[in-house]
Write a structure and sequence with these properties.
By secondary structure, this protein is α/β, with parallel strands linked by helices. The protein is 44% helix and 13% strand. Helix 13 links the parallel strand 9 and strand 10. The protein binds nicotinamide-adenine-dinucleotide.
């Protein structure tokens, strides 16, 4: 039922905008969503979903009657007072956030006292203040988005918290935005605009730091014979630490962490503050993507002419987003070493096609593994856990698997005939070959070993 519910305007129908539009429609609001890409608007108007997000297809279909997609600003401004800006803010060459799309949108919004700009795009702290200075007649509320791709609908509908920043004079618009989110039941954090902007950047930078931290711990575990899975389990039970984001792997990617960490570093730098910790977080992440290549070379020697299959390409499971995916760096590094790279992903093949020059894309995991000298698990899609690994081993030239996410069952792979190596734990085939030496290695740092 949409009677009496306020119409919402959304600008930018990408991951955040489309999910925002769909979820507000689910809550009963009529929604007008505007994007400048005509094909996207046409596809959405025909009822086709333009991104892969669990539950989104069904939700959009259920609420089609409340959703209008358009390339025009006129209808949106006519029908909606609260306008959620969800345009992209990619990194510039310098690492700062590129605000050109945000500026273009702000320039189109009238200072008529009838509209509220609600900023959902991730912007550097200070952006809201600058917009308020330039456009004093436009009410401004910061409402950063915290959804995770792969569970975006679920995250929007069940938020841990909703952050709403409004400065003096914009308390009423802040209340109106808070009222929209109240039915969802998450904590609502009311604050000023600059603090809201910082909460978003600091949250992503902290999560990225946690990932780089556990990746470094994993690398030390390999040296001293510890198992990072056990270490993370023992650490994560401490409530001050928590278990989330303590999974080692081949580095973080995606459209948010790399650019937001860099944007926070640059934001600090532009004020004259040197954010040292973030330099290390970024460097560890870059190096982590390359460690897989070292692991392969350790097993295979020269990679020239070796056929390496990448299992998974998207930056995480349940999405077809390839922005800053670790697979892109890994494929390029392997090609640089002279390897022949083949790949398979359950949903990101179309998105990957133009980005992976020279990589042979296969239409099933077994086809990718055919004749391969090694496989790398890049994205932890459930399909890979369910694969017939015995059949896979039979198809490969050498059954070697580097598990870049510590996702697969090592024992199962070894009994299927694989050499298996994960991240931050002793390779399982080494464990099998000598249980007693493991005990010795585990208690003796490498530098003290005979
Ligand atoms: N993707 C995420 O997981 C996520 C999570 C939280 C926050 N964010 C932030 O949200 C913002 C949007 O991210 P995204 O991933 O949805 O980006 P996206 O690239 O998927 O979508 C942006 C959309 O805006 C459209 N657009 C650009 N200029 C426009 C204009 N002038 N008018 C109308 N539409 C316009 C683009 O065509 C595109 O469809 C970014 O600032 C991002 O950092 C993203």
């Amino acid at each position: 039922m949409s009677e009496g519910k306020e119409t919402i305007g959304v600008i930018g129908a990408g991951w955040v905008g489309l999910v925002t539009a769909s979820c507000f429609a689910e809550l009963g609001h009529p929604v007008v969503a505007r994007d400048i890409v005509a094909e996207k608007v046409e596809a959405l108007s025909r009822g086709e979903t333009t991104i892969h997000e669990p539950g989104l297809d069904e939700q959009l279909a259920r609420n089609a009657g409340r959703l209008t997609f358009t390339t025009e600003m006129g209808e949106l401004l006519e029908r909606a007072r609260l306008i959620f800006v969800c345009v992209d803010t990619p990194p510039t060459r310098s690492g700062d956030a590129d605000l050109s799309r945000v500026r273009a949108v702000v320039g189109e919004l009238p200072e008529d006292g009838n509209h509220v700009l609600v900023m959902k795009s991730t912007v550097p702290a200070g952006t809201g203040e600058a917009i308020r200075r330039d456009r004093p007649g436009l009410a401004y509320v910061s409402c950063p988005e915290f959804l995770k791709e792969g569970s975006a609908v679920e995250d929007f509908m069940h938020p841990d918290r909703v952050v709403i920043g409004a400065d003096a004079g914009d308390e009423g618009p802040g209340d109106a935005v808070a009222a929209l989110y109240e039915p969802l039941g998450g904590a609502i954090v009311r604050t000023d605009v600059a603090s809201a902007e910082m909460i978003k950047l600091a949250s992503n930078a902290f999560l990225a730091t946690k990932i780089s931290f556990v990746n470094e711990i994993a690398n030390v575990c390999e040296e001293v014979g510890a198992d990072v899975g056990e270490v993370a389990r023992g650490m994560g039970l401490d409530q001050r630490i928590g278990s989330a984001f303590l999974r080692p792997g081949i580095g973080y990617g995606g459209s948010c962490f790399p650019k937001d960490v860099s944007a926070l570093k640059m934001l600090a730098g532009n004020t004259g503050y040197h954010f040292q910790l973030l330099n290390a977080v970024i460097e560890v992440n870059e190096l982590q993507k390359r460690r897989v290549v070292q692991k392969l070379a350790g097993r295979l020697g020269s990679l020239v002419g070796k056929r390496v299959a990448l299992l998974g390409l998207a930056f995480k499971p349940q999405t077809d987003d390839m922005r800053e995916a670790s697979s892109l760096v890994l494929a390029a590094r392997l090609q640089g070493e002279g390897a022949e790279v083949v790949a398979y992903d359950p949903v990101a093949m179309d998105a990957a096609r133009d980005l992976l020059e020279g990589v042979e894309l296969c239409d099933s995991p077994l086809a990718a593994l055919e004749g391969a000298d090694a496989a790398v698990l890049v994205t932890e899609w459930p399909e890979f856990a369910a694969l017939d690994w015995r059949a896979a081993a039979g198809r490969m030239a050498q059954p070697l698997l580097i598990d870049g996410r510590n996702f697969l069952d090592a024992e199962e792979l070894i009994s299927a005939g694989f050499q298996y190596e994960g991240i931050g734990r002793q390779s399982a085939d080494d464990r099998h070959s000598s249980a007693s030496s493991v005990a010795r290695v585990q208690s003796t740092p490498r530098s003290l070993r005979p």
